Amino acid sequence: MENITTGYLHRAEIWVCVTTLIYFLMNGAQIFETLVFVPKWVSSPPDNFKLLSDGQGTSLKVFWIVFHSLHELTFILAIIFCWKIDPVRNWLLVLFAIHFMVRVWTLSYFAPNIIDFQKIADAPGLAKDLTKRVSLWQTLNYLRVAIFMMVSLGLIPLFIKLFNMQKG
Predict the structure, then answer these.
(1) What are 103-130's pLDDT values in tens digits?
(2) In this structure, how many other beta carbons lie within 10 angstroms of the beta carbon of residue 55?
């Protein structure tokens, strides 16, 4: 490990803290959505799919795009500001890779299915194997949220390590 100044450690600590806090806020929103909102629209497909329709229901698309973009920016900044601290940097890279894989999964599976469900709300005749698709989406969403939560919990030991480095 290179010569690390107190100022460098302080900036690293701040960015790991910021990304952790934003991740926990995001987790809170995901948990709320998973436990409150999702059960409402999956309870009676396609009748309740109107809850997903832009302009007619609760479109969360913009919210999630902004929230994830902000979080990913802070996550990258945490990696940049921890670059000289090998063990912290390496774990941040591992956690970011896991996070990134789940985001790819989100964009390749969850988002397209939500878009399809929104289309079905406007044209119920498009529905095929709807109960099975909705059930699978809901089950996989529990797994996705759990993974996001584990990644955010994985940030806590890194913050503690940086805090202890600052003291020692």
Answers:
(1) 999 999 999 998 888 888 777 676 778 8
(2) 5
Give the contacts of 58 (CB within 8 A, at least 6 positions apart): 37, 51, 52
- Cβ contact 92:13 at 8 Å: no
| Triad 44, 45, 48: Cα angle to 5° | 70
Segment 10-32, tens digit of pLDDT: 999 999 999 999 999 999 999 99
If we measure between CA atoms, which residue out of 150, 147, 119, 149 comes closest to residue 133?
Answer: 119
Helix and strand element counts for the chain (H, E): 6, 0
Q: What is the separation of C-alpha 102 from the centre of its chain, rounded to a whole number of angstroms? A: 8
